[in-house]
Amino acid sequence: xxxxxxxxxxxxxxxxxxxxxxxxxxxxxxxxxxxxxxxxxxxxxxxxxxxxxxxxxxxxxxxxxxxxxxxxxxxxxxxxxxxxxxxxxxxxxxxxxxxxxxxxxxxxxxx
Length: 111
Fold this sequence. Notes:
44% of the residues lie in helices and 23% in strands. It has 4 helices and 5 strands; from the N terminus they run ββαβαβαβα. Strand 3, helix 2 (54-69) and strand 4 (74-77) form a beta-alpha-beta unit. It has a 5-stranded mixed sheet. It is α/β, with parallel strands linked by helices. The mean pLDDT is 91. The relative contact order is 0.18.
């Protein structure tokens, strides 16, 4: 799995195209659902993702909702133009917080 604990407060999930995308988001969702004590902000790195399907988008929305209910943030970074087009077309550009790259996300989410 490409889930890295950066610090006590930040997880970085580096996603890849299917089938890895679903496996990794399912693992994170399972962790978030099963352990109420999990209190991390999450950075979703989409650098290696070339396309998203409805299941992928649904998983991202669910991760965001679970984190938001705990007062935590989810930040999406390193997205391609094709992924940005998908976010715009679905209206998710208004739902998710986007930051240019992982380094900037680490600086901003750690504040």
